Amino acid sequence: MSEFYALVPAAGSGSRMGSELPKQYLPLAGQPMIFHALNALCSTTDIGTVFVVLAPDDALFHAYDWSRFGNKLQPLYCGGATRAESVLNGLLASEQEPDDWVLVHDAARPCLTQAHLVKLIAEVRDDEVGGILAVPVADTLKRADGTQRIAQTENREGLWQAQTPQMFRIGLLLQALQSARDVTDEASAVEALGLHPKLVASEPTNFKVTYPQDLLLAELLLSQKGN
Ligand code: C5P
Questions:
Q1: 6-37, pLDDT tens digit by residue?
Q2: Residues at CB less than 6 angstroms from ligand 1
Q3: Looking at ligand 1, which atom is closest to the CA of residue 109?
Q4: Whole-model pTM?
Q5: Which domains, and CATH codes, for the chain?
């Protein structure tokens, strides 16, 4: 039987937030932001170990109390210059079996729920390729010209926004990331091998905190979850 692992790349600086503190440690609902994603992953019984990939010089992670997650949470100080490099380094350092599954999740998606995880695992565990959480694009899409005017309207039919977790067999993901370094998510690396990962319908609430105003929305959603 294949096992399930989670890997959370958390070695970014989060420069778009305009804060000195790396994004994953910004205070959110009484905890550092990364706590919330780790909590959802560690609370899911199918997932055996949750690896968190930190920058080699990260001096903040150990300042927090993670004891409630016990040995299930394993920090790895091997983050790289890009997200893809952090994931690749983490996979190599975690030394898991090629046939096991890994769910790669951004530290900056704090509103992930156990229901999202249960759905992703159920819909992908028997898949040949793997799959990702995603939502169909809701807005009308405009392509800009060089002067910030609309060059044309794009057809949004069949377009989805990729989220995380992205779930692949460890061997396949290693092969994919070793040959396609210049990617912004795991699925792109797998697609570059000519494969077609599954789209699993998620919710917009699993958004990535990117700009300061996203924190307010995340705070609201997390406070509702707590009630
Ligand atoms: O910057 P962005 O929001 O795209 O980052 C997505 C995730 O990738 C975050 O959890 C961030 O910490 C992580 N990351 C990383 N190593 C990098 C850059 C980003 O682990 N070099």
A1: 999 999 886 777 778 899 999 999 999 999 99
A2: 9-12, 14, 24, 53, 79-83, 86, 106-108, 208, 210
A3: 10
A4: 0.96
A5: 4-226 (3.90.550.10)
Cα distances (angstroms) measured from residue 73 to each of 14, 69, 179: 22, 6, 29
Q: In 60-95, which positions are buried (b, 16+ CB within 10 angstroms) versus exposed (e)? A: ebeeeebeebeebbebbebbbebbbbbbbbbbeebe
**Which of 8, 19, 50, 83 is the best mutation target for the ligand 1 pocket, counting ligand atoms within 8 Å of the beta carbon and taking the most?**
83
Q: What is the mean pLDDT of residues 132-155?
A: 97
| 4: nearest Cα among 92, 94, 138, 78 | 94
**What does pLDDT average to over the chain?**
95
Atom of ligand 1 nearest to the CA of 15: 1
Q: Which atom of ligand 1 lies at the shortest distance from residue 108's CA?
A: 10
